[in-house]
Specification:
Largest sheet: none
Number of helices: 1
Number of strands: 0
Order of helices and strands: H
Strand content: under 5%
Structural class: mainly alpha
Helix content: over 70%
Length: 106
Amino acid sequence: TNEAVSSMEQTTAEVVAGARLAEDAGLALGEIEKVSNDLADLIQNISQAARQQSAAATNISATMNVIQEITTQTSVGASQTAESIGNLAQLAADLRRSVADFKLPN
């Protein structure tokens, strides 16, 4: 019977040790779950920030396209203005030559 008692005590000790291991494993799994949830939140925040940055980049690109179009129109307008000024200068010179022979009486 001493052997039976000793065997029961050893079995009880092993059961207690197994219960402690199971409890430790449960705590570790709880920590893993918490870290996983924290990581999921961080990933979601990063994803949202990336979407916002993508939208901002799209808006910036559209604005740059508008600026490029305005710059092109301004350049064309400046070229046309320069051409018109050249034409006016030529007309003024032609007009000066055509009236140069006319004299007003004193």
